[in-house]
What does this fold into?
Amino acid sequence: MIGGFIACLVSLPFEAALKSLMPEGGSLGIIFNAFVTFALVEELAKALAAISCEYRCPARDRRDFARRCILIAIGFSIVENSFYANSFLERFSRDQSAMLLVVRLLMPTVLHVLCGLLYTLDYNNRRFELRWGFVSAIALHGIYDVATGFAQLKLTALLLLFSFTGVGIVVRRSAT
It folds into this structure.
């Protein structure tokens, strides 16, 4: 989990720098921020944490690697949600903040864990390389951020369907 804490703290200045490059309004800004500012930076930080853990103490097998990725994702999500909690308390009433935090604790945490599980697609023969699992994690994260950026329920429902399909693929692939 410490790897996730560090990954989140490392990603924050890069996200701030990239976010200043693109204005927030409009479709282009939402898509750029979703896929580059947040998805790419956050997934790269988590992947580097996984690589660091793997370098220091190699995983025994794919399941061991999956457990590590899940812990990194949860650690990342804890730090990210604590920043959101402070932001909510500054901008909203206590009741609204509590409701928003519950939503933040559920959806993004599941997203980060699923993205971490997608890294197991890149783990073969006790070796981790950034390939399709990493690209899939960026795509899933970007789609989620676009869906929340446009705040359209149809996109969010499609994202949930995609997420559960992704979990099924990862679980099935990990079992083999």
